Amino acid sequence: MKQIAISCSPVLIVRFSILLGITQFALYSHGHGGVAFEDDLCVIKVNFMQAHFTVFQPETRQNTEYCEDIPDVTRSVFVMEYLHDLLKEMAIDFRIVRDINNAGRFASWKDIEAIDDLEAATVFYQQPSIEEGGFYRTSYEFQDKGTYIGVVTAVHPDEERNYNAVFYFQVGGRDWGTIPLFILIGLLLQLSYWLSQGGLQRFRPKQV
């Protein structure tokens, strides 16, 4: 029975490692952060419960829907559609906090607890209320461009417990986020291809 020897060049190993890193990074990014994307819908998780989360800027963007990247520094309407019946019975409040600790897309409740003066970092707070019709709606007119963290707190109707959802968003311009990383990965892939094609041979001095 013949044995087949498989050899891998260092360039191929580098390529495989980079592609594996991309896959792992994508899975890690999908598993964290406050806003998930399912079937082109923005979904936030309030503990085990879920809600569609959408932001509108009617004065400048009409009916266009946004999630994490809100383009203009203007009045923004926040809408949550409850996907769990229990949320309809719960008093819910909403807070917008400046991302002063640079928690970014992986912001969590621990990051909120780590803020020394939450009230000073808060730019907007909506008192707890029970909304009819399965929707929660509020609005805030932003004054400054920057990164923010939204905090939704739901109070259990019968038990002494609260559920929180924490999510990051950018106002007044797209946050480039991980795009520079993917550009760098693309350049590394191109470099590995160039090396595999003998790119360095062109720069070696000719022997006389």
How would you characterize the overall build of this protein?
- With 208 residues, the protein is of the alpha+beta class.
- It has a domain at 33-177: Macroglobulin (MG2) domain (Immunoglobulin-like).
- 25% of the residues lie in helices and 34% in strands.
- It has helices spanning 10-30, 58-61, 109-113, 118-121, 179-196; strands spanning 35-38, 41-46, 49-56, 69-70, 75-82, 91-98, 122-129, 135-141, 146-155, 162-171.
- The strands form two sheets. The chain has a five-stranded antiparallel sheet with strand order 1-2-3-5-8.
- The radius of gyration is 24 Å and the shape is elongated.
- It starts with 9 loop residues before the first helix and ends in a 12-residue tail after the last helix.
Write the layout of secondary structure elements.
Layout: H1 10-30, E1 35-38, E2 41-46, E3 49-56, H2 58-61, E4 69-70, E5 75-82, E6 91-98, H3 109-113, H4 118-121, E7 122-129, E8 135-141, E9 146-155, E10 162-171, H5 179-196
Provide the descriptors you would attach to this structure in a database record.
208 residues; alpha+beta; 5-stranded mixed beta sheet
CA-based gyration radius: 24 Å
Structural class: alpha+beta
> Poorly predicted ranges (pLDDT <50, ≥5 residues)?
2-8, 22-33
CATH superfamily of one domain: Macroglobulin (MG2) domain
Distance between the termini: 49 Å
